[in-house]
Amino acid sequence: MAKRVLGELCSEALPDEHRLDTAVHIKHLQAGDCLFSAEEQHPNVYFIRNGMIKMVYETMDGNAWIKAFSEEGKFFASLMALEPGGKTSFSTYAVCDTTVEQLPYKVLIELANSHPVWQKVLRRAFEIYGFKKETREKELLTLSPEERYVRFIKDREELAGRLTDRDIASYIRVTPVALCRIKRRVRDMGTLIYCIDDRGENHEN
Amino acid sequence: MAKRVLGELCSEALPDEHRLDTAVHIKHLQAGDCLFSAEEQHPNVYFIRNGMIKMVYETMDGNAWIKAFSEEGKFFASLMALEPGGKTSFSTYAVCDTTVEQLPYKVLIELANSHPVWQKVLRRAFEIYGFKKETREKELLTLSPEERYVRFIKDREELAGRLTDRDIASYIRVTPVALCRIKRRVRDMGTLIYCIDDRGENHEN
DNA sequence: ACAATAAATTAACCCAGGTTAACGACAACA
DNA sequence: TGTTGTCGTTAACCTGGGTTAATTTATTGT
Asked: Can you give the residue ranges of the Cyclic nucleotide-binding domain (chains A, B) (predicted)?
């Protein structure tokens, strides 16, 4: 079980894997439930068995911006919270009914310290995390909200289909109202492009 | 020498350290020089001996947005370029005259595979990288341009002092013109706050 | 010291996203 | 069946950043 969840990282059997089974704590969440809140100490790594989790930064002025989504089969954690004494800067909520496996980071560190293979798996996990964050950073820096929306819908179609527009807006980093306008614009542009493709000229205006 | 550069990660002596010295390639750059360009294969890790490097995303419409700065004593790499066959999505330039040590990632992987301590050092490096990216992501998602500017100037005063406003703007993710307006606003607000602090009331308007 | 180039500032105009509010669609629930 | 509440959509207005261009202020080079 813990093994299945490691699939993203490593296909071989790993030493002392049973230690995971004893350390893992299963949690069932209903849609909207909070997994953990910002400012808490949460030195844990989570594996999503099924469902979906959203990680959100809540600002003082009452806004909430979604940092990332994590689906079944994926793992996640708050890096800040993994540091000794560190605290999460974001909260996590279940997007729909969700089951997660919670594993104290300490256990992974111990495994890593006694088995080089585990150290490697851990390193690989951070590599993947950094990779994703690098991508997100690039999107936030180089794309307009509209471009971010189009790419999100295209690249993560299945995921987007399970979300409310509200959450999509929050991830795109735009208000729900703005997302509506963007959707309309994209829709109109869509028919525009259709016209051009179809007749070879633009029939709008 | 390679040892000094690892200071950020590990204080103890590491096995086979001499392999670094033979694999490291020193590069001297003048202000403005390009270290490597986007779309290149660059499976290397860089340590900055002195000077400063900026990592920049160059968009198709001719814009350039600075992803991050790296100063002396720090290391950096393009995670995408470290993946087998991967390519950088950003370019790097020297902000001022700069000396870097270039190390093939392959060497680090080999060291990591033969020595658990090295595996750990590598893991720690990715931890730190993810940590920084998490912070940057939070700033981009939750702060306004003005807030990003104020925080940048406050948190990284020394670094900011060595940059042109142009580069600061590019990091804040606004145009140089917008940065000017922001600076003026902040300046005015500064005197405003001064008034309030000093006399207990607001003398503007 | 002066010319040439780049960087920073300011003004004017445009536009996309933020904000508030109103309305219709839909689901959950008594 | 009606009520309540949430979600998506639209309209109206406001604001701050983008854009262009002109001007002033550093920097550089000779």
From this structure: 10-127
Contact, A117 vs A22, CB < 8 A? no
Mean pLDDT of A85-103: 96
* Nearest nucleotide (C1') to alpha carbon of A178: C17
Final residue belonging to a domain, choices A105, A121, A142: A142
Q: Is the CB of A181 under 7 A from strand C?
A: yes
User: In terms of domains, do B147 and B135 share one?
Assistant: no
Q: B142, B158, B175: which is the final residue of a domain?
A: B142
Q: Is the pLDDT of residue A4 over 60?
A: no
Q: What is the mean pLDDT of residues A158-164?
A: 96
Number of structural domains (chain B) is 2
For strand C, which nucleotides have at least one atom less than 7 Å from a protein CB? 7-12, 16-21
Q: Count the Cβ atoms, other than its own, within 10 Å of residue A195.
A: 14
The answer to whether residues B138 and B150 belong to one domain is: no
Cβ neighbours around B71 below 10 Å, total: 16
Rounded distance in angstroms from the CA atom of residue A164 to the C1' atom of nucleotide C14: 33
Residue A204 lies in a domain: no
Q: Which nucleotide is nearest to B176 (CA to C1')?
A: C8
Residue A105 has a pLDDT of 95
The parts of chain B modelled with pLDDT lower than 50 are 1, 196-205
> Which chain A residues are Cβ-neighbours of B63 within 8 angstroms?
142
**Predicted pLDDT of residue A6:** 58
Element (H, E) at A34: strand A34-36
Q: Which amino acid is at A128?
A: I
| Closest CA relative to residue A31, chosen from A110, A96, A83, A82 | A96
Task: Please report which confidence band the pLDDT of residue A19 belongs to, taking 50, 70 and 90 as the band edges.
Answer: confident
Both structure tokens of A196:
């051009």
Return the structure tokens found at A181.
């306008």
The boundaries of the domain holding residue B195 are 143-205
Strand order in A64-71's β-sheet? A34-36, A91-94, A52-58, A64-71
